[in-house]
């Protein structure tokens, strides 16, 4: 395997699954631990990861949409199907940026809904569905992540109202705080929360605790969390204390 391909696979593994040991990466890629160590040194020199004892973790930052879209698709589809079941025909829905929101959009075909989004991939998915009233928010285009951001997006949201917001995240802290790695997206997410009656967080198991340096909101601003695995005890306690319903993909936990 060429070094460049190994580097891509190492970064993808770290970004999707969090910090990893040299031995784990060696097994995943089918190369020696010594080769992985050399790769990690090179990637750290390039500023793409940080080596830690026995392994490495990815540097936080933007990941291209196409790269993230390939990760944990089955889990995201299970979350999306459960989230779609919360929506009644005739309601208005805000869909956040991100790949899980895109998987949710795929579940909405044939429904009579209004969908509002800053997610260009959601727009492309639903553009030809005549049963859906589709509202694309304005703003500056983030080409790599296929989203719209900035004061125009926020201004648009102040003029709109939605029954539901389906919110993405980079990570959920044990205290229930919803985090994001990209500061420029945070004001848009906050404006979406204000524009919606109910906020549903879509978070697969890798998002507990996940990553993120910027706080989007606290647990008190959430109504439901839809996830594909049991939430750790500390986070679950924080969510329950805030009155948040935790829904496992496939069933509801009271």
From TrEMBL:
The record's SMART domains line, in alphabetical order, gives: DeoRC, HTH_DEOR
The record lists the organism as Streptomyces doebereineriae
Q: Which UniProt keywords apply?
A: DNA-binding, Repressor, Transcription, Transcription regulation
Instruction: Summarize the protein's role.
Output: Repressor of the lactose catabolism operon. Galactose-6-phosphate is the inducer.
Task: Identify the InterPro entries for this entry.
Answer: ArsR-like_HTH, Carb_Metab_HTH_regulators, DeoR-like_C, DeoR_HTH, NagB/RpiA_transferase-like, Tscrpt_reg_HTH_DeoR_CS, WH-like_DNA-bd_sf, WH_DNA-bd_sf
Q: Does the keyword Cell division apply?
A: no
Is NAD a UniProt keyword of this protein?
no
> By what name is this protein known?
Lactose phosphotransferase system repressor
């Amino acid at each position: 395997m060429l070094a460049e391909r190994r580097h891509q696979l190492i970064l993808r593994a770290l970004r999707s699954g969090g910090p990893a040991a040299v031995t784990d990466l060696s097994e995943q890629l089918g190369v020696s631990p010594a080769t992985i160590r050399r790769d990690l040194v090179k990637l750290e020199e390039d500023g793409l990861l940080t080596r830690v004892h026995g392994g490495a973790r990815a540097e936080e930052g933007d990941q291209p949409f196409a790269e993230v879209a390939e990760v944990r698709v089955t889990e995201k589809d299970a979350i999306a199907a459960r989230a779609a079941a919360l929506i009644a025909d005739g309601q208005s829905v805000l869909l956040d940026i991100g790949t899980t929101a895109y998987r949710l959009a795929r579940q909405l075909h044939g429904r009579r809904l209004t969908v509002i989004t800053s997610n260009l991939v959601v727009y492309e998915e639903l553009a030809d569905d005549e049963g859906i009233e589709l509202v694309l928010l304005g703003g500056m285009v983030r080409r790599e992540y296929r989203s719209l951001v900035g004061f125009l997006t926020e201004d648009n949201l102040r003029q709109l109202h939605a029954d539901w917001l389906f919110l993405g995240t980079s990570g959920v802290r044990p205290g229930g705080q919803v985090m994001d790695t990209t500061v420029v997206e945070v004001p848009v997410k906050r404006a979406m929360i204000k524009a919606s009656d109910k906020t549903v967080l879509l978070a697969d198991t890798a998002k507990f605790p996940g990553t993120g340096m910027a706080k989007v909101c606290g647990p008190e601003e959430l109504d439901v969390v839809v996830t594909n695995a049991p939430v750790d005890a500390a986070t679950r306690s924080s969510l329950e204390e805030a009155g948040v319903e935790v829904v496992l993909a496939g069933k509801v936990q009271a």
